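Practice set, problem 2.
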Amino acid sequence: MTSDRPGFGFSVTPGPVIGVAEESVRAVAMGYDRIGIWDSPALFRDPWLTIGAVAAQTSRVRIGTWVTNPLTRHPLVQAAAAATVDDVAPGRVYVGIGAGGTGVWHLGLPTARQAELEAYTVALRELLDRGRTTYRGASLELPWAGPRQVPVIMSAHGERSLELAGRVADGVIVGLGIAPEVVASALERVERGARQAGRRIEDLEVWFTCFWWVDPVPGAARAAGAWSATAFALHFAASGVDNKFVPEELRGPLLEVGRSYDLHSHGHPTEEQKAAYVDLADRLGVGEYLRRRFMFAGTPAEVEEQVRAAMRAGAPSFDGAIDADLPEHERRITAWADHVLPRFAAAREETP
C-alpha cells in the first residue's frame, strides 16, 4: 500500500473565497495532490462555493469537502453540489463526509449515528453513480448528475466507523493518528470492513490526517504545533475513548483535555487558548502522547522519518489539517512543500 511518493494533501478552513482559490493555484505548483475544505457553517464560509472557485482556477488538484456531514444537507442536495463542481473540474471532485462535529453542534444537532451515516453515504454514492436511490423510504432521482465518478470518502474516528468506511465508502480519512501502531490497527479495521463487502483495502482511497509542523530550527516546530495535537482530544470527549486504541491509563486525562476544548474558536484559537491546552495536557501527563500520535513535527529530517515510519506501517497518503486563517494557511503549506516534499519522490511538474 505504500510507495516512495505518498499522497500529500491538506485541508483548510474556508476563508475569503478568492484568497483560498489563489492559494490553491500556488499549492498545485508546489506539488500537492489534494485540497479539502472544511464544512462548519457557523464558523466558516460555504465549502461548495469555495470548492467551485478552486475548481475554476486549477486544472490538476483534486478538491472536495473535508468533511461535510449527513445532517445539514439532504443527500440529493449534496450530490447536486458535487456534480455541479464536477462539471467544472471533471474527475477531480470528491465528497469527504463524517458523522459531524462543529458543523452540526453549532446548529444544536447531535452527531449522526452510524446507521444515519451509512444510509446517507449509500444514498449519496448511488445518486452520483446511477442518478437514483431510495432514502428514508423515498425514491430520489438526479438524472442530470449520474453516472459520474465522484468518490465518497468517509472520515473515521473509531473502530466501528473504520469498518463502516471500509464497507460502504470509496475511501476513508483516518482521524485516529499517525503513530505507527495506530496506523497498523486502523488499517486492520478498514480491511475488515472492506472484506465484508467483498472488496480489498487496495480498492479504497486511504488518507491519514494529522497536523503538520516543520522548521529547520531544532525544537521550533514542536513548540509551535504543540497545541494543535490537543485538538484531536475533542473527538475523545465527543464520542468516548473506547475503540480508539487508547491505553487504559490515559483515557481519563484525554477525556479531560477534550472537554476543555472551546468549540466556538475551532479553527482560530487565541494564543492564550493554545498555551492553556498545552499546559493542561502536559499537567495531566498526556501532552507528549498527543503530540506523537497526532502530528508530524520537527526539523525536515525528523519529519521525514516520522512520515516514513507511518508509511512502513502501511499509510499511503497524508492530509495536513491547517486550522488557521489566511495567510497562515499558505505559510504552513509552503513550509511543508519547501522542506518535506523534496525528500520524497519528485512531485509532478504540471502547473494549473
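Problem 2, part (b): a different protein.
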Amino acid sequence: MPPGVAHLHEPPHPPTNAGWTIVGIPRAAARAGVDVIHAPAYTAPPWAGVPVVLTVHDVSYELHPEWYPYRRDWLRRRFYRSGARAAARILTVSEFSAGEIARAYRIPRERITVTPLGVTPAFVPPGTEKPRELPAGVAPPFVLHVGDLHERRNLGVALDAVLEARRHGAASLSLVLAGIDRGVVNGLCASAARAGAADALVPLGPVPEHALHALYSGATALVYPSRYEGFGLPIVEAMASATPVIGSNAASIPEVLGDAGILLDPDDVSGWATAILSVLRDVPLRERLRSAGKARAATFTWARTARATMDVYRRAAGRPGQA
C-alpha cells in the first residue's frame, strides 16, 4: 500500500448500493475520523457528519430521461439529486456540465468546480512507433467511434455519413464501433444491410487497451456525433494518439475539442460525409488536424486534475490555504 494510504474494513450495512451509500459510508468515515468524503460517481450520502465532495460527470439522465428507459430510473434520479444537493462541493468535468448541473439541481454555480479529465501517456505514440495490429475484421480505411453505444451517441448519422462517403468514391470505408452495446447495434446493422453494405459497419464490442491503441492509430478519424456529453474522453484519447477528430457542435464537445478538429451539426449527414472524405483524401488537412490534436491533448493531464481535486478537498475541509 502506498505511504500515507490507510485501509479500513467495511463496516456493517444493508447489502445494497443504497445501504452502502446511506449507512456504510458514514459509518466508515466516522470510524476513520476523516475530514472529507469524496464520492466519485454520482451517489453520495445525504448526511455524513463531514463534508462530502461529489463527482458528477453529466446530468443527461436528469434532463433527458427518455434516453434511459429503465423501470426504476426515476428512483435513481431522485437519489442522485438528493446527494448532489447535500454535497458541500461538486466536481465535474466541463464548464458545460457545470452549467447543466446548476440548472438541473438548482445548485449555486460557485459550489461546482470544473476538473477536466486527463489522458494517460499510453495513448501518446512514440516517435518511432511501429504499426500496431488491428483487431480481426478491421481493415483501413475506417472511421472509429469509441464508447458505450447509447441512443444519445447519434451513431445513425455516423453510419449514414459513411454510406454516403462510400457512394462518393470511398467504396471500402467502414465505421468501427468499440464499446458496449446499450441497445443500438441491431438497428445499425439492419440499416447497413438495407443499404446493401453490411460490411460498412464493424461492431467490435468492448476492446482491450492494446486493441484500442491500434484502432486509434489506424483510424482515418474518430467520429463523435453525440448529442450530449459531459466531457467525451475518447476525443482527448484520439487527439493524443494523433488521430483527427470530427465531432458534433453540441454539449461539451466544442469545449474539449476546441479548434483542433472539425465541428459539425450533429444531424448534417452530408456535412459529416464531406468531412470524412476530406480527412481521408486531403493529406495536408489530415496532418494539420493530427498536429493540432496532439498539442491540445497535451493540455489535458491527470496531474492538473489531481491538483484541482486536492484544492477542493482543502476548501471543503475549511483549509483553503494549506499547501
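Answer key, part (b): The chain is about 40% helix and 10% strand. The domain at 122-297 is CATH 3.40.50.2000 (Rossmann fold).
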